[in-house]
Design brief:
The protein has three helices and five strands. By secondary structure, the protein is an alpha+beta fold. The protein has one domain. Strand 4 and strand 5 form a beta hairpin. The model has no long low-confidence stretch (mean pLDDT 84).
Length: 140
Amino acid sequence: MLNILLWALLLAFSSSLFSLSFSYSGVSRSFTGLGKGIAESSVIKIDDDGTDLMKPYFDKLSFRMATEKYFASALKRYLSSNQKPTYTYLFYDASSIDPSSPVSYMPTGVKLTFSCPVSIFLTYSNSVSFFIKKGAMYGK
């Protein structure tokens, strides 16, 4: 009888560990899958009146909405409805010497810090930076 109880406890413990590792790895894969396409889609080089700007920059609202929409769709199968991730955005000028100083107008770099509670005692946290660098289309 004790044997059956021990096996049941072992099975419950194993399945809860599997569920926890599945959720944690899913959140990690979702963050790793955040491609640069989302950042590229929020770069603006055209002014409101339709003229070209000299320097492209990140549209803050567009970047925030695109990342939150991506994470909402990517994380829905790994998290319950009461587990909400938090996002911290730091928009900065990528050409400055000190990238930790925020800039409010025409940022050329953004650092996204992502934190997501997977369980009561386990939280996934990571950050990624995107910046506009001179290339074939910009900066000749």
